[in-house]
Amino acid sequence: MSTHLRLAAALVTTASLALAGCTSPGMPMSVYGPGSVGYGQPVKVVVVESVRQVLVTRTASGWVTFAGTGVGAVLGGIGGSALGGGKGKQAMTVLGAAGGAALGNSVAQAGQQVPGFEIVVVDPATRGSMVVVQEATAAGATFTPGQQVRLIQGSGGARVIP
């Protein structure tokens, strides 16, 4: 393996690992954003009927997607330029840049998936049920069928807390 190819492979690996770390942890349930302060939210005591672990996909911010795609394209272009000669080198640079951009974007998007729960709750008074999907919390709250929990509903959606 040539020195250029090794360098390109090392750069692509390093950038991929760096982009994989471009995620931020979800806000724990005990932290409220500025839009929640000063507003009342109805609370009901409900019972958990079922719980399923899911992955919640966050909307990737523009800069994360842009950085992932841009860094991937640059590193892919460097890696591609190390291959081929003459016009083949130009083609490999373009293909490397396109492949690197796709890989960088994919890594950036994958970093936006976080663990969560799909919780079906039942209101004992009305027998009405609701499904709530929410991110798992940093506090590690768990839910089990039959557990009494609080359902908090507001203009921003609903969440379940133990």
Rg over CA atoms, rounded to whole Å, is 23 Å
The neighbouring-strand order within the major sheet is 3-2-1-4-5
C-alpha end-to-end distance:
57 Å
Provide a count of the helices: 3
Count of separate structural domains:
2
> What general outline do the C-alpha atoms trace?
elongated
Largest sheet: 5 strands, antiparallel
Strand content: 25-35%
Would you tell me the structural class of the helices and strands? alpha+beta
pLDDT < 50 stretches: 14-29
Order of helices and strands: HEHHEEEE
The level of helicity is: 25-40%
Mean pLDDT: 73
- How many E strands? 5
Supply the key terms:
5 strands; 5-stranded antiparallel sheet; about 40% helix; about 160 residues; 3 helices; elongated; single chain; alpha+beta
Task: Describe the structure in brief.
It is built from 3 helices and 5 strands, in the order αβααββββ.
Can you describe this structure?
The chain is of the alpha+beta class and 162 residues long. The chain has two domains: 80 residues, no CATH class; 77 residues. Helix content is 38%, strand content 27%. It has three helices and five strands. The protein has a five-stranded antiparallel beta sheet with strand order 3-2-1-4-5, with no helix packed on it. β2 and β3 form a beta hairpin. The chain is elongated, with a radius of gyration of 23 Å.
